[in-house]
Amino acid sequence: MLAIVATLLLTAAGVTSSPLERRATDGLNARAVAAGKLYFGSATDNGELSDSAYVAGLSNWADFGQLTPGNALKWDSIEPSRDSFSYANGDTIVDLAAKNGQKLRCHTLVWHNQLPSWLTSGGFDNATLITILKNHITNEVTHYKGKCLHWDVVNEAFEEDGTWRSSVFYNTIGPSFVPIAFAAAAAADPDVKLYYNDYNIENAGGKSTSTQNLVKLVKQYGVKIDGVGLQSHFIVGSTPSQSAQQSNMQAFIDLGVEVAVTELDIRTDTPATSSAVNQQAKDYASTIAACKAVAKCVGVTIWDYTDKYSWIPSVFSGQGSALPWDENLKKKDSIYNAILSAWGPAPTG
Ligand code: G3I
Q1: How far apart are the first and last CA of the chain?
Q2: Which numbered atom of ligand 1 lies nearest the CA of 304?
Q3: Which residues form the signal peptide (predicted)?
């Protein structure tokens, strides 16, 4: 009774919000921000944006303070013909984030995948490909200047054993395609944070070491690199431990960059058993706890928020159920609550 009276008095005085409003300000992102991070966010894609229930969940700032376009900013979408740029899909997601007050991770400028055939089959020599690379980056980064918190400048440049991945860029230009790309991005938008982004670099090993060498390489060229994105596409029960993730994050930070968890999902065989879901909740919590514990881990992004639109079943047959919301957009309470408590207390005031 006393508590109700106190709430009424404070509300009447404009001091606090009602319990309902307070609940609406708590969520995955609100907790991340309360823990000192910039955001907790989600990837999204244009095809999903006609699903109004999905968009309502995605637009809830309390859960998602940041969006990453899953496909719209990739080369084949942006420059399908040489020197002809197409920004409509990208703009749709950028505008949605702005409307919702959400930050943006812009993904991705240079990747071996989702390239148009004019580029992969063009037979361009070194000098011409460098011109094409710079032109693409300059156009796209200029178009989105001031809109992106981060740009994933180069994505997935290494094979699993840490050797350079064969790609049109590496095969034609060599490793210097990386500093060339970062320099072009920095020139087009000096304020955006420039990231290298990859998977299976979330704990110590050959691929993480190669990525650390890439950071050094870019810096040796005198070029700006601000961060490393740890994609974190994990498998239930095989997720690196919290301490392994933390020490790996620290190894990057010791080189003078920040880190972000950029594409987190934790897949399992489907249908998921209850023991798998229990383990999944613990696995989500250990990645969140690692980011929370490391000051220069700036935020966590999940690779879409619902199994309805996850990329996993189409690539890993018989697997999925990797995200905190199910295929019917229903929140999985055990995973959601594990993420909430790993971030720590709800925001106050
Ligand atoms: O847009 C076409 C559509 O016109 C066509 O009808 C349909 C038929 O298959 O395909 C559509 O394109 C698909 C595209 O997603 C958009 O939905 C491609 O086939 C499909 O391959 C593509 O998959 C994307 C994948 O990257 C490509 O490698 C996933 O959505 C996207 O989530 C995934 O994201 C990557 C990150 O960029 C980098 N890290 C790994 C991550 C997961 O693979």
Answers
A1: 22
A2: 32
A3: 1-17
